[in-house]
Specification:
Elements: H1 3-9, H2 16-27, E1 32-33, H3 34-41, H4 47-60, E2 63-67, E3 73-77, E4 92-97, E5 103-110, E6 128-131, H5 134-138
The chain binds zinc ion (3 copies).
One zinc ion (ZN) binds near residues 83 and 88.
Length: about 140
Amino acid sequence: MNTQTLLKEFNLRNTLPRTCILDEFTKSSYALSHNDLENNLGNKFDRVTIYRTLKTFLENGILHKVLDDDGIVKYAICATHDCSHEQHSHSHVHFKCNFCGQTNCLNDIAIPNISLPKGYKFHETNVLINGICKDCNEG
Ligand SMILES: [Zn+2]
Ligand SMILES: [Zn+2]
Ligand SMILES: [Zn+2]
């Protein structure tokens, strides 16, 4: 996936931080935290710039949040391209490997529909499965 094309598709002006940060996500096979980005990008951008860029991507449906079990928020690319400014429209499972600590999107595994009791309003579902990932299991 080309970063420039992706930004254009979402009508976002391509700035250096946007291009570099989005690049990290298209290159990575697993979800990245704010700290991962800081480490990968060195001192290229300050915390605020990274934070703002992530926020823009979240709001525009390019990235979604991946909630980790230790409370760290990670982010991953929205693979479906169905996400928009209004809402994210995917409900897939996330998998956290206990061995390498990486979390990835299992885009093909859908979260079953859960019906809520009367009076409850649905916002989003987060399903995190713990285990050993494919790479670690085979290695
Ligand atoms: Zn999304
Ligand atoms: Zn692993
Ligand atoms: Zn995901």
